Amino acid sequence: MRSQSLVAALSLGSTALALHSQFPVNTAGETGVRPLDIVNLNSFSSNPEQWNFDEGPAENATGNLIFDTVNSFLQHWPNTRYRNGHNIVPGVIPIGTLLYHGTSRDTIPSEPDWIATDPEHSIIFARYNARGGGGWHLTLATTRPLKVLYFDGSSAAKFTNGVMDVQFIVAWGDSIPERADDRAVIKALCTWGKEFGIDGFARMEMDFEVMLCDFTAGVEVVSFLDVVLPKVEIVYPQPPFDSDIWIRGFEVMHAGSWRNRYPGDSRIVLDLTGLISLYDTALAPSLVPVRAGLERCDHRVLGLSSEDISRLMRKLTEVVSRPDPVGSGIDWKTLIHVIVDRYADRLELMQHLLNFTSSDSQELLQRAKLAQAQLRIMLTPYLLHSIAVPSAGTSGVNASRWASPMFRHCATTHTSQMINQRPSMTSSEHLLLKAVEDTTREICRVTTKMWADGVMSGLDTLFQVEMNEEGEVTRLMGEWRQDMQKLMSWLDWSVWIKCRPACGPEEMCYLPTWPIGAPRRRNPPPPPRYPQNATDAPEAKYFVDRVGLPPEGQAVSDAIFFLAAPVEDWRKPQPKCIRRLLPYGF
């Protein structure tokens, strides 16, 4: 096996030299730079102290949060679960993409307005008008790539708990919602973005939308149809669940659910080389003490210092002013998803195996051996022939150090080859690299230590280590259970949040989504009116009114606002199965 390892190493070296000749690296001005120095790279990261199994993430570390938010971009499920966005990302909407706008008027907007990525979303705004029913539905197609900024989280929801903080900062320089309704937000953002050629701002509520700044730039009309729609009859305090208003409302949620998981809404293409994250502690150090002791669902940008706001806006201006593509060329979106794919199911299976108790020692032993086998499966690519397992009973500081080479290879395998790309990385890419390194390091630290402890307890059939006393297995299973729970809580991937058991064919797995279940208004809204001029924004009063509902969707939104959920259910939304057919039950 050792000779095979030597052949493999020589083959890797030959491959690296061949790739270097095909894809030379620009090393002008650099001394002694080589494309991939395997020996130096390995020795650089082989310091045993660097791979200490007892050294977990720092208390205020945010690499896991940056990793997870980036992995969640443009996906409805995770951005419904954690509504308060912390990121701004430049992107484009490609040529030929269809976009939709509903209205009660037969004129195309002459000022900034909202467009939807799905007709199920826009059609609810093509509402009843003075002619007696129906409305107008506009379909647009992009004629060039539209330059957009994406705000993550439920950034189009209209309530005060932090979902619009980042937009307020860009629009007005602070995160306190003292300005006006959503009409004022779109006007302020488009005014700011005009200097940089920004066409719109991508956000999410029930589904994804774009605040389009100019309906005559970069888009052309595909159709502008006078559609027949049932008249919206609002019954207070709540419409019956077989009302047409619920069909239209549910179908918006249904369309949004198509983007629940990776890759999310692929009609918006993000440029992660320009990522701006307010989980970046170098960019926003003032938020570190603000977040201290809070659960993630309570994180928000309110409290960002004026110095940090200035730093944020300087970086944002720099990003949106770049004339040409920059960066290393690394596909960060795919890299991060590969890591999630690799570990998500396996960690979930480990959690299941460890959630087991039995008074039968043989049953417990067999369960522990199953868990040990899964740990070895995870770590098989890093199981080195050169590793020397110490004898049973070894204790003290060196008890697990024999496995540190596996820890190192596991933690660095996705990023060690990027040494050549570092000089061409943007600051955003360095942030992404650090997030990937932090995340893989913790996954590999925990899983490798668990595996090594299992080996030393005699649970691994590949290594002949004498089995410890009977109580050792019970103790080890308890420690493993705690370690796995702590790791998965730290990673906090939304892929693990699902309906259990799975929903039936007439059901959909659902997380409470604005406006259904949102905190109630201070006073119930009056019965809706149907003004002819439906694009006039309502007068700004108190929030939810102040960062108000889209003016044309007032009737639909007012109706479903009455389904207020308990505060804790809204703060920490939990999945549940709901009907896809009448009568609905949110």
In helices, the fraction of residues equals: 25-40%
Mean pLDDT: 84
Q: Distance N terminus to C terminus?
A: 60 Å
Decide which structural class fits the backbone: alpha+beta
* Strands, total number: 12
- What general form does the structure show? globular
**What portion of residues belong to β-strands?**
5-15%
Description:
The chain is an alpha+beta fold and 586 residues long. The chain has 17 helices and 12 strands. The strands form 3 sheets. Strands 1, 3, 5, 6, 7, 9 and 10 form a 7-stranded mixed beta sheet that branches. It has a 3-stranded antiparallel beta sheet with strand order 2-4-8. A hairpin with a 3-residue loop joins strand 6 (200-204) and strand 7. The longest helix has 30 residues, at 427-456. The relative contact order is 0.15.
How does the SSE layout of this entry go?
Blueprint: H1 2-22, H2 38-44, H3 63-72, H4 76-81, E1 87-93, E2 98-103, E3 113-116, H5 119-122, E4 135-142, E5 146-151, H6 165-172, H7 182-194, E6 200-204, E7 208-212, E8 219-227, H8 244-257, E9 269-270, E10 276-277, H9 287-291, H10 306-320, H11 332-354, H12 361-379, H13 404-412, H14 427-456, H15 470-491, E11 507-510, H16 554-560, H17 567-571, E12 576-579
Helix pairs in contact: 3-14, 6-7, 11-12, 11-14, 11-15, 12-14, 12-15, 13-14, 14-15
Task: Please describe the structure with a list of short key phrases separated by commas or semicolons.
three-stranded antiparallel beta sheet; seven-stranded mixed beta sheet; 12 strands; 11% strand; alpha+beta; 586 residues; globular; single chain; 17 helices
